[in-house]
Amino acid sequence: MKRIIQISYITILFFLSSASLQAGNTDHTPTLQGKLDSFFGEYIVSPLAAILFWPIPGLNIPLVVAWLLGGAVFFTIKLKFVNIRLFTHAVNLVRGKYDKSDQVGEVSHFQALTTALSATVGLGNIAGVAIAIGTGGPGATFWMILVGFLGMSSKFTECTLGQKYRKIRNDGRIMGGAMHYLSEGLKEKNLPGLGGLLAGLFCLLCIGGSFGGGNAFQVVQSLDLIKTVVPTLNDFPWIYGFLMCSLVGLVIVGGIKSISKVASIIVPFMCGIYLIACGFILLTHAREIPSAILLIIEQAFNPDAAFGGFLGVLIIGVKRAVFSNEAGIGSAAIAHSAAKVSNPVEEGAVALLEPFIDTIIVCSMTALVIIITGAHTDPSNSQYILNNQGGALTSSAMGSVISWFPNVLSVAVFLFAFSTMISWSYYGERCWVYLFGDKSSIIYKILFLLFTFLGSIITATNILDFSDLMILGMAFPNILGLVLLSGNVKQYLHDYEKSLKSN
Length: 503
Description:
Number of strands: 2
Number of domains: 1
Number of helices: 23
Largest sheet: 2 strands, antiparallel
Helix content: over 70%
Structural class: mainly alpha
Distance between the termini: 49 Å
Strand content: under 5%
CATH architecture: Up-down Bundle
Shape: globular
Strand order of the largest sheet: 1-2
CATH topology: Amino acid/polyamine transporter I
Order of helices and strands: HHHHHHHHEEHHHHHHHHHHHHHHH
Radius of gyration: 22 Å
CATH superfamily: Amino acid/polyamine transporter I
């Protein structure tokens, strides 16, 4: 109760401060909101971009993009296409076919999957895909799907290790995630210094990612869409920020059990609504699907120069895919480490379903809807593309076929954003506690709510850039650690498959 009061108090302070942020002026001098947005872009986003998106000489590909692609290909080959071999088994695990009463953990396979999916299936699928197509053309979709397929192997690797190196505290709570397998796993390989460094770097980037992509990005993109239905929010965006602060604050106090319970209800519901709508549009335009697919493939390798050429489309596709499914960045391992399992490989198998559901199914359907309806080439949507308002672009595409659906989509987007935020709050909090201890977790939660509010007053472009920097940056320490520990994972997988055959 004390924590709820604290969070409520800080939320009220945000509400009161918003009056000054939104106070109008008649002399066209920069408002406090404008100054804050400018400061965020100039002094935070730009310096970080110069470091994390350093282009590889001669290739002009950002290092992080090559790092993610290379890692995903490496794990897929090393584990002999585990993304295909264990797919059916993973479905059976989620169905509960292999559940046992003596399994240790806080949540079920299904709850762990939905918690992780709630952090991935969200505005990355609605807004992120639209941004990718709007800025990179239809060809970006191909690279998103490819990265999703390869990313299944990355997810398997990191979530298997997340289970292997998790810690069960005396109070029954599970402590796990990339920071644990980086520190403990590399310590076993006589690399304690490197492990500690990578774990610390991962935590800092994950905390930043939770504030950006897992929080503020969700607010700004959902707000941009909801504004089209509730015009009042154009003048008073702080109302939406205040609402999100209040709702998120109530849920995150309860920890992983509370978060997973909410996620297990919201995620299937909101996915169902969204996929039914997409399915209807695609069925009514079934004749146009083959030509849309051909356009995606053609533009993937021979893109229009207006979209930056081949490398430009490739980079955009990779960035938006990773932002959507989070494969290779280590975040999902935090949620999956809390699952009840008999063997760490079980949860790795469950986790590989995430990129399949998130990118190969949901993102592909969104992309086809946008391409078939021609929303990305409609001049009336040019402002959405220019301002990276992907949610509004997707809404326009769906509204062109189902006139009333933008209203329903607004509700779905709100739920998408909300579920993503509560899941990422858990990721960030676990990293914060790892660095600063349990007693400081309330500080993190207050900061998280602060960024929830900031998302309603900072521009979409600045938020998108900051989110990319933090979330993609997590790949550097995570993939390096995964490569060094991949031999262990290969052995775990071999032993697990052997045990399945013997049973």
